[in-house]
Amino acid sequence: MDEIYARTIALTSSPAGCAFLLWxxxxxxxxxxxADPLMSFFLTxxxxxxxxxxxxxxxxxxxxxxxxxPRLRSFASAVLSHPDAAWWFAPLDRAFQLLSKNPGTAVVxxxxxxxxxxxxxxxAMRNIQxxxxxxxxxxxxxxxx
Length: 145
Description:
There is one protein chain. 48% of the residues lie in helices and 0% in strands. With 145 residues, it is mainly α. It has a domain at 3-92. The relative contact order is 0.17.
């Protein structure tokens, strides 16, 4: 079994993986956009929100997501085949980490690295109800994600 196929099956057999792909599809992202590091973090956050144990309909949502898996396989394969997704399976680089925190909490590092470029598609982002995607740090060091 080739590596991309095995990863495709794994991604589309996971509720969070299916949610990731469905969010990308819902907002009209291309495989390249979904594989983009910044966008993949965003999609992962949305997907994890969809599979949280705190949902009152969590069991039903899991089943609904898993039913979409087979339909999403070709899109998943295209995303996983994109060169920007290669880092998903690379060894962890402890020198390059992303800071994720709650809005309004203090940033501990002196100079945190914050992704500040706009998302790939403004049209795609119009369909997402999460408010601002990302902002540059203010003088207080806070970042709104």
